[in-house]
Description:
With about 160 residues, the protein is an all-alpha fold. The chain has helices at about 1-25, 30-55, 75-80, 85-90, 110-120, 130-140. It contains 6 helices and no strands. The model has no long low-confidence stretch (mean pLDDT about 85).
Amino acid sequence: HFYRYYLSLQLFFGFILPTIIPVYLWNETWARAIISQVFIRYIITLHTVWTINSIAHAWGTRPYDKNIKPTDNIIINYLTLGEGYYNYHHVFPWDYRAAEIGNNRMNYTTLFIDMFAKLGLAYDLKYPSMDLIKKTVFKRGGRTHLMLSEVPGPK
């Protein structure tokens, strides 16, 4: 099972291998390799993830639930190659796509999972029906969803 080896794999691919590669391939010193790969790279990665998460919870639209903080942010979507639909993700956390079908602009994560599904290596992929998405948008949405532009009435 994957979880049995998770910590070992994380340590190896996240810290050990990135430290060894500069030492053996580029004749870097152990001290510089450890400082640059274990500390600096890891700190930059964490702060980048936290910044993106903070922006996506502060600025953007709330087409699926206007009462929660996460937003759909098109800029974050482009910067992260398809991971900018936080409002959708928080309303439908079990959707493997992390964005409504049709909103998967540049969502390479979904394309990657879909590719493995076609190969039979990913299965039981869950996502909401279009009817559930529409009901949610009309009931709780912040009136910014494109489907609302086609519906008569107040916006």
